Amino acid sequence: MKYRVIHQLTERNFDKEASKSELEVLDYLEKNFTSIPFLSVIKVANESFTSQATVNRACKLLGFQGFSEMKYAAKEDIELMNSTSERHIANTEYILRKINFDGAACVSDAIIGSRRKLMIFGLGGSNISALYLQRQLLYLGIPSLLVAEMQMFKNFEGYSLIVLSSSGETQRCLQIAKEAKKLKMKVISITKNGSSLMNLSDYCFHHDVPVDKMKGISREQQLHIMIMVNEVVDQLKKKLDI
User: Fold this and answer.
1) In 3-state terms, what secondary structure has residue 19?
2) Do 169 and 91 share a structural domain?
3) For the chain, first and last CA: distance in Å?
């Protein structure tokens, strides 16, 4: 069983652009998600300062015929969210669907091509993933240097730099990548699809996992990055016949 409403509310990747009033409805539904089963279309319209017709149009953007169908699906989502094991299973399945696993091939090839001259950078939560990647590479006989700032790699011409960043928009990550390009380094990244870091990279393994929001504060998840690192490592094992 998969979530049918909450992910659509948070991502909002619709086929057509939502109007301002429809966005007001979507914002209200996302903010009051756990209360949806107890709401009426009239209350939603009043509380979001819109109309019943607008509420139904917003529900159609989410993939439903109208408010009643969306309300029933939201109830199922909430029941699933309240089941701890099912919640984690559904979340992991969702993350797996958001990873472009085909992209691991070019990254593993790039690592093999630079196997004696590799540097790795990760900031914050991604630093943990960077440490994990370095350790896994050592198990495969591939040495690498973990760097924390630009000054550390200015004398390492001919190296390739692996940058791990969940968002691909962290300024220090982008500065590191830009400096590496100036030094004629190849930039290999594990990051978000369409991000600034992806656009700077020579090789990229990307995902489409959205930022996790907690009352307006971004919480950096690393599960998808760890899964992606493991996929790269698995491909390296096969290609190196280890």
Assistant:
1) coil
2) no
3) 37
